[in-house]
Amino acid sequence: MNATLFLPFISFLINGFIWVYVFALRKKSRANTAYLIYSFFLEMWLIFNFIIWSPISNKVVLSLVRINSVWWLPVCFLFLNFTYAYLRLKRGPIFYILLAFTVSSIAMSLSTDMVLSGYIRYQWGVNLKPGILFIPAITLVMFIPTLLSVFLFMGRMLKAADSYQRNQIFLIVIGTILSFSIGVMSDMVLPLLTGNTDLVQIAPSATMVQSLFIFAAIIRYRFLSIGVEEAANVLFDNLKDGVVLFNQNGFMVQINGAARELLHVGGDDLDRTDIARVIPAYQFDREFRGLETQIGAGSGERYLSLTQTQISGHNISAGKILIIRDITERKLAEQNAQKTSRHFRTLVEYSSDIVMITADDGTILYTSPSVERLLGYSQEQTVGVNVYSYFHPDDVRPVKDLFRRGSRGDAYVTFESRFKHQDGRWFYLESISRSMPEISELAGCYITNSRDITDRKNAELVLRASEDQLRRRNEEMTRELENARKVQNLLLTGGIPTLETVAVDYRFFPLDAIGGDFFSFGSTDNRNLGIFVGDVAGHGVSAALYLTLLKSLTDKLFAVHGNSPGRFLEELNRELTQEIYINYVTALYGYFNMDRSGAASFIFSKGGHPHPIIYRRENGATEYLEASGMLLGWIKAISFDEVRVGLNRGDRIIFYTDGIVESMNPAGEFLGYDRLAEIVRRANSRPLLEVLDAVLTDVEAYRAGRPPDDDAFIACVEVI
Questions:
Q1: Alpha-carbon torsion 616, 620, 626, 632, what sign?
Q2: Kind of pairing, strands 426-435 and 413-420?
Q3: In whole angstroms, what separates CA 533 from the centre of its chain?
Q4: CA pseudo-torsion sign 20, 23, 24, 25
Q5: What is the pLDDT of residues 289-338, one digit of tens each?
Q6: In angstroms, what CA-CA distances link 297 with 266, 279, 304?
Q7: Which of 495, 475, 608 is nearest to 555 (CA)?
Q8: How far is CA 398 from CA 37, 354, 364, 407, in A?
Q9: Which of 225, 345, 504, 519 lies most in the core, judged by the most C-beta atoms within 10 Å?
Q10: What would the 3-class secondary structure string for 449-495 be?
Q11: SS (H, E, C) 99-112
Q12: 437 falls in which pLDDT band (50, 70, 90)?
């Protein structure tokens, strides 16, 4: 068995024990973390040395040797990293240059023969065969980092005021020098002096010397634990307030990060920085507490609170400490609060509304100046008076009940009340009130905002009276219209004759209570029938009154010109064009001439009225009966054509007004003559009394729920 294997094995155990011990301290600091990383790489170096020195196949030795360089090449740089972390030094260019050399050396060792060209196996184990860059690499990544670490530690040891820290550093330096010296002597100096390369290399195992010294520093001097000086430095650097230390001559000797940020002080030349140029109000020879001042301008303006006191020991002044607190947010908040307070005070004092603060029992504690302008009382007259003494007696109890409910949790109380003016008049006030529990000075009090609504209330009373009057008038008008509707209905339906030659059916739908469509039937015997259909321009009362005139005129003309449609319309037009009449009317007059011999005909004239539709029972066909003629009531002297149509038993003629043919669907499209003709054709397959209902059902379906826009009349006359 290879006895030399005990060296890396024992070193592994010692280093491993110390690594676990440091890890168990659980001190989360950069120094502890850096040391654990450094010690871990040492452990891996020792493990690989143990494996390589073991009797393993030569096929894997070279690969393991190259992989091992990942662990041993950076150990000195990692120790330097630990040095920077422990001493709390800022990493500069030298640190990063050495890092670059270390990474480059590892990369070349893994991928080329320039650092490691191979290995030589001896009885005790394996020795490295150096490449052409081995010496430069060792110098840059091991010698220089180690020497720099020792130099930095010794520099701090000479300056440290804490004896514990000096002793810690002393042990680290001694352990590092011994460990490094043993490794260099065994692996480089002795083989070079003796010319014997078969000497056992103990550099990896020598690292346990350094570990033992570090362990001694841990046990005896609490190394890698937080010391007084370190704790003070950590506290100093992490204070939220800025802290500046001055020597007895007034020069800055130390400044923490918060102060640097506040004062924009950088660099290490603190003794050349005049703080009075940054803080004009600062004076070194004074002591002060909570001195508020301002620095900067514009967006960089800051408000500071300064506290300065003397540092002394044994009655000897050592300098002064200045504590700087940024109070910008507080000052801006105070300024905003003052602006808001002034703003609301102005609103209250110049508001047209009354602002009042009352105690829980109603005692007035404050009223705004507007109380004098609105109600005639001065502020002094109202303060101390119970507010309910100003209320109308009928309003006191309802308002008190509202406040009682509000005190049980309702946020706001809103009410209207009558308030007595100084001159005795009653004013209506609309008020909104709430308690103020969030303001300790107003706990149990109410703040009320009231505005004068007297004009509005008086206007409401006038409006209510006007509404009552309009309601009565509307009811009277409704009754009158209903009476007019009944009269119109009697005029239209009271004179339909019953004949043995023809049968008549009709439907009438006025748009308003009284419509503008007019129809009338007349007969001189029990065989012949005259029918008049008219549509007055407009509808409603004026149209209905005009219809009364038409009724009287058509009744008179039936007796004189009932069998001559053209003459009938000419005389009617002459009457309507008198100066007293102002409406226009479309009209159709037709005469069913039923000869005793059995021959039947329909003679008609029309003026501006829709064409009647004839339905022939013999073939089921429908067609429009056309005749020319102008509106009635427009031009005095006009004539009308007469059209004669022969009829047979079962033939039907349909009369209607434009309210039927101009029915619109939701898209705004008229029903039109073609659709109406088709609807009439389909409906006439039914008995007479069902025809009009069938037509109206199809028209309603076309409207699809759209309300009618005009009066509607439709009639059907059948030859029997």
A1: positive
A2: antiparallel
A3: 66
A4: positive
A5: 989 998 987 777 889 999 999 887 556 566 889 999 999 888 888 887 67
A6: 20, 12, 13
A7: 495
A8: 82, 21, 19, 14
A9: 519
A10: EEEECHHHHHHHHHHHHHHHHHHHHHHHHHHHHHHHHHHHHHHHHCC
A11: HHHHHHHHHHHHHC
A12: confident
- 517-522 sheet: strands from edge to edge: 517-522, 529-536, 585-594, 600-607, 643-647
Q: Sort strands 600-607 and 643-647 into parallel, antiparallel or unpaired.
A: antiparallel
In which residue are the tokens 């003459």 written? 567
Instruction: Give the helix/strand (H/E) hosting 714.
Output: strand 712-719
Q: What is the pLDDT of residues 12-54, one digit of tens each?
A: 888 888 888 888 765 557 888 888 999 999 989 888 888 887 8
Q: Which token pair is 602?
A: 């329909």
Structure-token pair, residue 410: 């309702």
Exposure b/e, 295-312, CB count within 10 A at least 16 = b: beeeeeebbbbbebeeee
* 64-103 b/e (C-beta count within 10 Å ≥ 16 → b): ebbbbbbbbbbbbbbbbbbbbbbbeeeeeeebeebbebbe
Residue 589 pLDDT greater than 90, yes or no? yes
Would you tell me how many other CB atoms lie within 10 Å of the CB of residue 447?
Answer: 17
- Tell me the three state secondary structure of residue 716: strand
Q: Is 207 within 8 Å of 10 (Cβ atoms)? A: no
In this prediction, residue 86 has a pLDDT band, given cuts at 50, 70 and 90, of confident
CB 21 within 8 A of CB 35: no
In whole angstroms, give the CA distance from residue 142 to residue 381: 95
pLDDT tens-digit readout, 118-132 = 888 877 777 788 889
Residue 271, token pair as written in the block: 């003794």
Give which of 439, 360, 443 is closest to 404, Cα–Cα.
360
Length of the chain: 720
Q: How confident is the model at residue 567 (pLDDT cuts 50, 70, 90)?
A: very high
Report helix, strand or coil for 515: coil
The pLDDT score that the predictor gives to residue 187 is 79
Catalogue the E-assigned strands of 618-663.
621-624, 643-647, 652-656
Q: Is the dihedral of CA 218, 224, 225, 227 positive or negative?
A: positive
Q: Which of 219-228, 573-582, 639-648 has the least mean pLDDT?
A: 219-228
Q: How confident is the model at residue 403 (pLDDT cuts 50, 70, 90)?
A: confident
Dihedral angle at the C-alpha atoms of 49, 52, 54, 58, nearest 10 degrees?
-170
Q: Extract the tokens encoding 358.
A: 């009352």
Q: What is the pLDDT of residues 659-708, one digit of tens each?
A: 999 999 999 999 999 999 999 999 999 999 999 999 999 999 999 999 99
Q: Among 54, 39, 75, 40, which residue's Cα sits nearest to residue 9? A: 54
Q: Hey, what are 204's tokens?
A: 């990896």
Q: How far apart are CA 48 and CA 61, in angstroms?
A: 10
- Residue 718, SS3 per DSSP: strand
The tokens describing 268, both together, are 């290490």
Straight-line distance from the first to the last Cα atom of the chain, in angstroms, rounded to the nearest whole number: 142
| Single-letter residue type at 24 | A
pLDDT at 293: 92
Of residues 475, 428, 433, 472, the one with CA closest to residue 454 = 428
Q: What is the largest CA-CA distance in the chain?
A: 165
C-beta of residue 652 within 8 angstroms of C-beta of residue 716: yes
- For the question of whether the overall pTM of this predicted structure is more than 0.70, the answer is no
What is the distance between the alpha carbons of residues 515 and 487, in angstroms, rounded to a whole number?
12
| Rounded CA separation 145/279 (Å) | 43
Domains in the chain: ranges and CATH: 3-229 (1.20.1070.10), 239-332 (3.30.450.20), 351-452 (3.30.450.20), 495-719 (3.60.40.10)
User: Among residues 653, 645, 654, 568, which one has the least CA distance to residue 600?
Assistant: 645
